[in-house]
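Researcher: Please translate sequence to structure tokens.
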Amino acid sequence: MMFTGEEKRRAARIRFRVSDNLQICYKFLSHLEGFQCDEIFEAPILNVSTGGILFVGSLPGRDWLPQLGQGLVMIGANLMVPEKKPVKGLCSLRWTRPSPVQLGPRYGSGEKYELGVQFEQLDNSNKQALEKFLIGHQIRTRRFRVRDEMDRRFN
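Model: Translation complete:
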């Protein structure tokens, strides 16, 4: 039996817009010679689940893609949860493509990619913090969505 990406997904994705200002700070981690990078990148998040993150970000170079895809280079990620400690995890790249999203100068110049990463290591306290944040976000945005819908109906 062949599964699509949606059928294999274990956790529901919560979508965000670039304007929501949910950020990830990330760093590439490797023991491979020629694939060392001390730079810490910052990027906007497009969606999050307890299984992983989709964000629009930069790479140290296009030549890093094969090593990332094979899991030879990992990604240390800090999800910058508003008003809380960052949620920290170790991730692997699951897929990537050039991004059509246009970002301002805040995120630097150069080619941007949509990076879909999966949590490989996320300790219990970070997982609980992520779950709490996602539930809270869903409750807040649902409340706003319901209020907006009522305003449209009665105005």
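Researcher: Any highlights?
Model: The two ends are 51 Å apart (CA to CA).
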